[in-house]
Amino acid sequence: MVEPPSDPKYRDQNRLANVVLPDEAQYAAVMKGEAVEPEPINAKPRKPSAGAPAQNAPAWGTDAAPAQAPQQVGSVPWTQQPQAAAPVAMAYPALWENKALGVSSWKDVVKRGVVLSKPIYAAQLALYQAYMDLPAPALFTALNRDTWEIHCELVPFDAALAQTMSDRAVQVVQASDAQELLPRAAAERISVVCRGGKTSAGWHSPCAWQDRCWGGCR
After folding, report:
1. Same structural domain, 201 and 130
2. What pLDDT, in 10s, does the model give residues 143-174?
């Protein structure tokens, strides 16, 4: 329907009053692209015709009981269930980790691989694989935010790296509980690890905790 504006400065607006369903007379004309006379302004929704097919009724307008979710068959963990046909040559189930990177970081990952280019990402992968019980090589994908190119690689599970990172986390938690200060990662606050910047190992973002870590020190 066409709704005239309340202010003459604005144009008329088209308002959707009723959805034309396949069982209604206007449906054929609409599908043919013919002009259909608009209904009056503020027209009440039409009631479905008595002979309307049941499939045209919206799901929220029926009294039918909601569909039941499929029941789980057995109690086999999903990691031990039979593997479906894989689209690529890789073991399943497997971890999938995706990152969106700037062009320079993306090119470095493509050139050297995620383990060498992004050690923090590699640590994340190893921890996820360990605690999610996914020892198969992880699928790592990197999206180039500038060109929308996608890099894919398989990363083998590094159990030693996962154990090292887990031990570090436990050490931090235990020190926090005991209100102890662990050694800083840098000797000076002006270090790239603290203030942020690029090193041979890659780019470091400014540390969000440097004020708490260094306090009044310089």
Report:
1. no
2. 999 999 999 999 999 999 999 999 989 988 99
The answer as to whether 107 is a domain residue is: yes
Q: Are 101 and 147 in contact (CB under 8 A)?
A: no
Pair 83, 92: CB distance under 8 Å:
yes
**CA 78, CA 132: separation in Å to the nearest integer?**
11
What's the rounded Cα separation, in Å, for the pair 190 and 158?
Answer: 33
List the domain range (segments joined by +) for residue 192.
Answer: 183-218
Matching residue, tokens 């590094």: 158
Q: Look-up: residue for tokens 């570090």?
A: 168
The pTM of the full predicted model, rounded to 2 decimals, is 0.54
Is residue 122 domain-resident?
yes
Model pLDDT for residues 178-194, shown as the tens digit of each residue? 888 788 878 888 888 88
Provide the greatest CA pair distance for the chain: 83
Q: Which of 26, 41, 56 is the last residue of a domain?
A: 41
Query: Residue 128: inside a domain, yes or no?
Result: yes
Total domains in the chain come to 3
Q: Which residue is listed with tokens 């043919």?
A: 32
What integer pLDDT is reported at residue 146 of this predicted model? 92
Look at 7-11, 54-58, 177-181, 184-188 and tell me which has the smallest mean pLDDT. 54-58
Phi/psi for 214 (5° steps) reads -95, -25
Give the separation between CA 204 and CA 196, rounded to whole angstroms.
5
